[in-house]
Specification:
The structure holds two protein chains of two kinds.
Chain A (H helix, E strand, L loop, with lengths): L4 H11 L3 H12 L5 E17 L2 E19 L2 E7 L4 H15 L31 H18 L3 E19 L4 E19 L2 E11 L11 H16 L7 E8 L6 H8 L4 H5 L20 E4 L20 E6 L2 E2 L6 H7 L7 E2 L8 E2 L3 E4 L6 H6 L3 E13 L5 E13 L2 E6 L2 E6 H4 L3 E4 L4 E2 L4 E5 L2 E9 L2 E9 L4
Chain B lengths: L1 H14 L4 E17 L2 E19 L2 E7 L4 H17 L33 H17 L4 E20 L4 E19 L2 E4 L2 E5 L8 H13 L10 E7 L1 H14 L2 H5 L20 E4 L20 E6 L2 E2 L6 H7 L7 E4 L2 E4 L4 E3 L6 H6 L3 E9 L9 E12 L2 E14 H6 L1 E4 L9 E2 L3 E9 L2
Parallel strand pairs in B: 8-15, 14-19
Antiparallel strand pairs in B: 1-2, 1-4, 2-3, 4-5, 5-6, 5-7, 8-20, 9-10, 9-14, 10-11, 12-13, 15-16, 16-17, 17-20, 18-20
Chain lengths: 480, 445
């Protein structure tokens, strides 16, 4: 059970800021003059240990704290933040925020009171930041040895373990106060392989809102290390990637970044309220093959993208974005939900107290289909099989998206043959999803490495995908 | 004041057993206003400070940072950093630069504009509103907008070492940008334009920013894919600059000693066409990337990275320099985890041809106005990114193109530079003129 009292007590003890004082700030400065207002308090500890050349030579610890005050009227938002949490500063920030917001005519649609119980998705008996440093150091050394042992061509190993804890407390004008304590950890392994003057890089990792021991269970650390080594050495023999339009099969798990770029961003409430998304006004329309059902689910226990409540205090949920090819819904924060006459979906997120919330994804994935993954590969005469990606980006207005394969192979006569060099895949969101012709029964979520950027704000996210076949994607290779 | 706080922190570190320490303090105030469809959308005020500290215990080190500058918190940070430094491995290359290498005096690079910030929020909002109005009224096909914004930031950077060195300097920056949306036949295109300066008076006028943003959005309407082909590719100045950033990344010390760079062992050899000269100069008066000293207190200077196609220098902080058996090029910057390397004002020296002449020299090829995605492999130089732009047909920009990729290898691309424009404008920290690359693979249908 999440200790919901803990954030309240934490901020009261440390900064003498209590929910009732926060309510007073909101009531005194803002009530009756704006549509909605909230105060967000945050305290964050972040530690990172990193190994290179066989030794942990870098260790760092970062503490940040602050408060953000937001006032909204109509479509206007006033936001002010301070890294010095005192009631006086909160009052100043509230005045600054109001100065902007209350020049607008408040709309008739008033914010609704916070509703629903927060989840309890990541209560841990030991926070990752509390784990003995010696145990973390030891793990990095084991990772180093395992990656080097995996292949003699591995010449460099970099490994890092990051641990974080964020304590938040949100108080809204409607009298709703809710806190959260969010652990997060990640183990990352990068290797460089060298052979005959050719060098290649491999990266693997994972984590979540889990204990440090997660890395020891099922020897995950070892799998991460050997995977990073395998990717680097594999690429030493990679051939040029073909260029042009071809059939693409995506492996399960992390390739779900396709959905994040092709579908997810375009369905965020702000872009649709402003009607600048390629998906604007298309709810109820067919935007994908009927094999495709896509959801965003912030309630999966211990996942990197999960949250008990979002950064506006709304409990997260499971939003169906596309159901059997039909566009069903958007991802909403409170502001955009209010202006569109919809309900918040628990997707109001922010990087830190220094940023106002935006509608963001949590864990975005496609539901499993009926096909056997090997049958899907066998069905392709000639194409590309991509299983690992390094990142992606989308232009939400015209719908064009890219994602870059870091591990991919040629498919020839239904068989996986040569590995190819990394290449960018490009498509158009509402169009690409209509070309999905096979969906496997092997849905997997990613290992817990995703970070999403929007308007300069980064937040941890997850993705997932079964094996799928897309008929006709443009592959940015060099072999013409 | 700032430096005083830092030296107190460093004294405590030494008292706790640190053999040396240095610290960087950034204090900043910023304001941003977004206007959308003529109405104020979001206004943000920020007031932030962050102290970062690096502590050495013998040859072992650790880093820490905090946004809480209360005495109690600073004491805790020092204690934790010193404790962390005791568990890290010793490293013969660790350490501060020699005290006598540090900057003497402090050059005035004219980086701040104290009165520039004295503008009422209403007046700042008005500048954004004018940019958006200009964008929306520039063309009937501009039907929507993601808004226009005004941003200004006033910052003070202080650096100190436990040897008693202390310096600080103020900076200002100002930016106006606009992002209009054009539409035709149910399809939309967005583009943007901006102006960024250290002096408010030097900002481009909001009307021209809005107008250029609108032109950029409108010219993308009706974009289509093209057939896959190997053709000449021209990068406009904005996108050519991204190639320089990739080059600088590969030339930076940390990627080199990690053997994760395609420029490894290439110092002194030809890595680009003889037409290519790239200079990093942190001493330019009033420029966006200028700084009097780097993140380790070393005086900023002018470094020729590539001269006539030959790689002449790497970009090093003192740690990566020692690892490589070289000396620092004074490119250290502080990041959360300690010290990294970054360019200051990175410039590809202009050529003699106008952009129009470069375009006229291409029979059939792509003029790139936007790149998306992260398809650059810094270890091999392999390059593959999403692109949009205009197709060049018989020396003329003929129709807009989208949903294609451009691919090659950075070393081959720099070697294949066939033309460099004369249109260099110092509008950002990394700038390039228009760049013509002889052959790249454009993938489409």
């Amino acid at each position: 059970m999440t200790d919901l009292v803990r954030p309240e007590r934490f901020f009261a003890d440390r900064f003498n800021v209590t929910p009732s004082l926060m309510e007073k700030v909101l009531g005194g400065a803002l009530k009756g003059r704006v549509d909605d207002a909230d105060i967000y308090l945050e305290y964050r500890i972040n530690e990172e240990l990193s190994l290179e050349e066989g030794a942990v030579k870098k260790a760092s610890r970062h503490v940040s704290q602050g408060a953000g005050v937001r006032a909204q009227a109509g479509t206007r938002t006033g936001y002010a933040h301070t890294d010095d949490i005192t009631i006086r500063n909160l009052e100043d920030a509230a005045r600054q925020a109001r100065a902007i917001a209350d020049r607008a005519t408040a709309t008739a649609a008033l914010a609704t009171a916070g509703a629903g119980k927060p989840h309890d998705l990541y209560s841990l008996d030991e926070a990752p930041v509390a784990t003995d440093l010696a145990r973390r150091l030891d793990l990095l050394h084991k990772v180093d040895a395992a990656a080097r042992a995996a292949d003699p061509r591995i010449k460099q190993v970099f490994a890092s373990v990051g641990s974080e804890e964020v304590v938040t407390l949100v108080a809204t004008m409607t009298g709703w106060t809710v806190g959260d304590v969010r652990p997060l950890t990640r183990l990352n392994v990068t290797t460089i392989a060298e052979e005959n003057g050719r060098r290649e890089i491999g990266t693997y990792g994972g984590g979540g809102r889990v204990r440090f021991d997660y890395f020891l269970e099922q020897e995950r650390w070892k799998r991460f290390a050997t995977e990073a080594a395998r990717q680097a050495t594999l690429k030493l023999s990679a051939v040029d990637t073909p260029a042009g339009s071809m059939t693409v099969v995506l492996g399960p798990g992390w390739p779900g970044i396709l959905l994040h770029e092709a579908v997810g961003h375009g369905l965020e409430g702000d872009f649709n309220r402003k009607e600048v998304s390629a998906f604007s006004g298309r709810i109820g329309q067919k935007v994908a093959s009927e094999l495709v059902t896509v959801v965003d689910d912030g309630t999966i226990p211990n996942r990197r993208g999960s949250l008990n409540v979002d950064d506006e205090g709304t409990p997260t949920g499971r939003a169906v974005l596309i159901e059997r090819g039909i566009l069903r819904g958007y991802l909403q924060d409170k502001l955009n939900a209010r202006l569109m006459g919809m309900s918040p979906t628990g997707n109001g997120r922010r990087e830190s107290y220094a940023h106002p919330p935006l509608p963001r994804m949590t864990n975005t994935f496609m539901l499993a289909g009926d096909d056997d993954p090997t049958d899907i590969l066998k069905s392709v005469k000639s194409g590309l099989y991509a299983v690992a990606f390094s990142g992606g980006q989308v232009d939400i207005t015209n719908g064009n998206f890219v994602f870059s394969a870091s591990e991919a192979y040629l498919i020839e006569d239904g068989k996986i043959t040569k590995p190819v060099k990394g290449a960018t895949l490009i498509g158009n969101g509402p169009d690409a999803m209509t070309k999905v012709t096979r969906v496997g029964h092997d849905l997997e979520l990613d290992e817990g490495i995703g970070t999403c950027g929007k308007d300069g704000q980064s937040v941890p996210v997850g993705v997932g995908l079964p094996t799928i076949r897309i008929d006709g994607m443009t592959v940015g290779g060099t072999a013409v | 004041m700032s430096a005083g706080l830092l030296s107190d922190v460093l004294k405590r570190a030494v008292a706790r057993g640190a053999t040396a320490a240095d610290g960087f303090l950034v204090e900043e105030r910023s304001f941003s206003a977004l206007v959308r469809l003529g109405q104020v959308d979001t206004v943000s005020h920020a007031d932030e400070r962050r102290l970062s500290l690096r502590v050495f215990v013998g040859q072992a080190s650790a880093a820490a940072s905090t946004s809480d500058l209360s005495r109690e918190s600073l004491e805790r940070v020092v204690d934790e950093a010193t404790a962390l430094a005791r568990i890290t491995a010793t490293d013969p290359h660790a350490g501060l630069p020699e005290p006598d290498a540090l900057i003497h005096g402090l050059p005035d690079l004219d980086l701040d504009d104290p009165t520039g910030h004295d503008l009422a929020p209403e007046a700042k909002i008005e500048l954004a509103r004018r940019a958006e109005d200009a964008a929306r009224s520039a063309d009937p096909r501009i039907t929507n907008s993601e808004g226009a914004d005004f941003f200004d930031r006033q910052a003070r950077y202080a650096y100190a070492t436990s040897h008693g060195f202390e310096r600080e300097y103020p900076t200002s920056s100002f930016r106006i940008s606009a992002s209009p949306v054009a539409s035709r036949d149910g399809s939309m295109q967005r583009d943007s334009w901006y102006s960024m300066t250290r002096k408010r008076a030097r900002l481009d006028d909001p009307e021209s920013i809005g107008r250029i943003a609108a032109e950029r959005a409108v010219r993308r309407l009706g974009a289509r894919k093209v057939k896959t082909a190997e053709v000449p590719v021209i990068f406009d100045p904005e996108n050519a600059a991204s190639l320089l950033r990739a080059l600088a990344g590969a030339a930076s010390g940390p990627t080199l000693y990690r053997r994760a760079s395609f420029l490894l062992d290439r110092l002194g050899s030809r890595i680009a066409s003889p037409k290519v000269t790239v200079v990093d100069d942190g001493t330019l008066q009033g420029a966006l990337g200028s700084r009097p000293f780097d993140g380790e207190g070393l005086a900023t200077k002018r470094t020729v990275l590539v001269r006539d196609g030959v790689l002449e220098s790497y970009l090093l902080d003192s740690y990566s320099a020692r690892k490589l058996g070289m000396t620092s090029t004074h490119h250290a910057v502080r990041d959360g985890a300690g010290v990294g390397v970054s360019t200051s004002n990175l410039v590809l020296q202009p050529g003699t041809q106008s952009p129009e002449e470069l375009i006229r020299s291409v029979k059939s090829g792509l003029y790139v106005t936007e790149l998306i995605g992260f398809g650059v492999n810094g270890v091999t130089g392999d390059y593959s990114r999403g692109a949009a732009g205009l197709w060049i047909e018989n020396g003329e920009l003929s129709y807009p193109v989208e949903e294609v990729t451009v691919a090659g290898n950075l070393l081959k691309m720099f070697d294949a530079v066939e033309g460099i424009g004369n249109d260099l404008v110092m509008r950002d920290r990394t700038v390039s003129p228009t760049l013509l690359i002889g052959r790249m693979v454009v993938a489409g249908n």
